[in-house]
Structure formats: structure tokens, C-alpha cells
Amino acid sequence: MPVGLPNNENRPTPTCAFPAVWHIPGMDRSDEELIAAVKNGDAASFEPLVQKYQGRVFATARRYARRESEVEDIAQEVFIKAFQKIHGFRGDAPFEHWLMRLAVRTCFDFLRAHQRNRETPFTELTEPETDWLDRFVVQPDTASEDAEAARLLVGKVLERLSPSARLVITLLEIEERSVKEIAAFTGWPVTLVKVRAFRARAEMRKILGRMARDKYL
Amino acid sequence: MNLNELHAKLIAAARNHPPGSQTPYAFEKRIMSRLKASPAPNVWALWGAPLWRAALSCVAITVLCGLWTFSAHRAADEPGSFAQDFEAAVFAPLNEHLEDAW
Questions:
Q1: Residue B16 near chain A (CB below 8 Å)
Q2: How far apart are CA B65 and CA B78, in angstroms?
């Protein structure tokens, strides 16, 4: 059992079918208190911060990495960077925003370092993906956005985008964030975000065109 | 195929399927053990490495300059060196005059 985890004997016995809520040390302290403690050399105060925000960091990492091992590597890097840079956190914005900015930048670095072959043709589409696309071609309204095939298909399209285009499409169109927010997340000027958004949409349309050509011509 | 509509549909599909926020068991413990394992950055060590490198380069440059100066002096002292030849050429008429005087 990992060090520091409560033993089964110490855990409160659930009295009903719902999972028991365990007391996590440090979770009752505010972010400001925990950060101040970490800055003063109490590294253990970083653990509740990890516990509190790990879900959000994992969800962000899953937007950009497919394999679970890659997602874990990204999340680990985000928290290690956060610990190393915490002295630079001034507290002007909530810690969560600062951490998410770090997470987005780490994901962008990951995308740049793991650029897969973006020129591969769309011939390896699975049967449900092909069916969904066929349905869309015949009658667009019948191709549901809720279908799992659509989710897998958009994943394949996003993988073929350049790192900056993927980041912009994800933040602007999928997460529906504003240009200003994206500028704050990425550190790019607002005008650069707009230019990259324009290019990203064009790039995505080009990829969709290629997909249609590979599939139907 | 209407690419704009396909684009909108696929983006909507991505919005409808947000990624999960589940985390591996005891992930925070793993982070804390990683942080404990990695030594705290030592400011002296951070400065020490480049300073040592700079000191070694300086020593190497000093030794090379010393060797060059030493060899240049030795070359100047050798008979038949350029300096001596030059001196002999300049004073040649004078030497001839002195020889005639004898």
C-alpha cells in the first residue's frame, strides 16, 4: 500500500449503499493557505492541491493525448512544473486558472513533441465511422452528433491538425472559450489567436475535404 | 458533401463527449514521491557547473598563451632567427666600414 494512505481499518464503515466520504488531510484549508505553506517549504501541503485539481488536469490532458500512459505523463509533468514554479504564482488569479494555463501549455508542448504522421489517408476508418459518414452524405440530419462513431471520427480529424490548429480548435470551438481566454492560456497575443483560429478552421476544412476525397472518390 | 455542415457536426460530437476526469489510484501519492525523490535545486550547484566550465576554459587559454609566448621568445633567441638576420642586414655597411678601418 502506498505510504500515507489510510488503512482499511481506519476508514469509516459505510452505513449505506452510497460511498463514504473520507476526510482528506489538508482539504479543509483554502488554496491560498496551502500555497503559502508550500512556498514556506512545507511540500506536503502540495498534496491536497494535487488531489483537488487532478481531475481537471486529467480531463484537459485527455483532450490532446489518446493513450492513457501519455495522459498520465502530461498530468504528472503539469503538477511537477506547478510545484517547481509555485513561487512565481502571485495570486492575482485563482490557482485553478494558473494551473490550467500550465496544463494547456504542457499539452501544447506534448503535441509539438509527438506530431504523428498527419498525411496518412482516411482509408483505415472503422465500419461504424464509415456508416456514420455514409449516413451524413445521404441525409445529414440522420447522422447524430451523439453517436460514438462521430466522436471517434472527430478524434481522427483532430489528430491530423497541426499542434497550434488543434489547440485553437479545441479551446475555441469544442470548449467554447473566448479569444481572450485562449490568449491568456497560451500566452499568444489576441491577434495571433485570431490568425491561428482562421488558419485552423481552414486546415480542418482541408482535412475534411481530404477525408471526403479518400472515401468517396 | 457539405464540409461546413460536417465540420459543425463533428465539433458538436466532440462537445457532446467531454473527456472523463477519472484519475489513477493514488496519483497524488505518486506525484509527492516523485517530488521527494527529485532533489531540491541547489543554487550553488546551479552556479557551480557553469563557473567550473568557465574556469577550465580560462586555465586552458592561459596555458596556451604561456606556451605561445615561451615558444616565441625561444625562437627569437635562436641563432639565424629573423630578428638576428634583420639586425645583421641593417648593420652590414657599418660592419664593413669597421672591417676596412682595421
A1: yes
A2: 20
